Amino acid sequence: MTEGTENYLINTETYLQTGIHIGTTFKTKAMKPYIHKIRPEGLAVLNLDKIDERIKLGAKLLAQFEPKEIYVVCRRESGWKGLNLLSKVTGMNIITGRYPPGLLTNTNLKNYTESKIIFTSDTWLDKNIINDAYKNGILIMGLIDSNNTHNKLDFAIPCNNKGRKSLNLVYFLIARQYMIEKKLIEKEEDFKYKIEDFVDL
Question: Which of 5, 34, 62, 145 has its CA 20 to 30 A from that of 45?
């Protein structure tokens, strides 16, 4: 599970401390490639190598777009601290809570947006915006836990997408790596925010 730890975005201890690798007792067939093992009590453990790899690639994908072209969505209040800071740091648009119907589809709405990519935190909770984006050919990136499916996603990041620490750690890593990929900072040490600004460790 930790073959390339020396190249991880963050140390293994912090990853494990946030429970980013802890899935659920329900496993979908689509998530099989991302599951490292099943604990005796039936809890899925996600592959940390794949989590780290996909966060890196996800940041590279987002960096192909300007902040105003990106919408990051999270209905879970547990992720709002990190999400709000992600928006402050990068300038990405965010939606906390319920998705406003028609945001991506109704040109008559004042808040209509021509986003080029959306980044969702849960394929089930965010299914309405995913469906609208899918219909309109908008790229969809999403966080997926062991109980999720990802048939409408263009890019998936496996992780614990329910825990407060896990969600906010993902937002921290995405914010930092996006800044690096966009050449706004040169290296990780130049990122002026600490993990603790995003995550209550």
Answer: 62
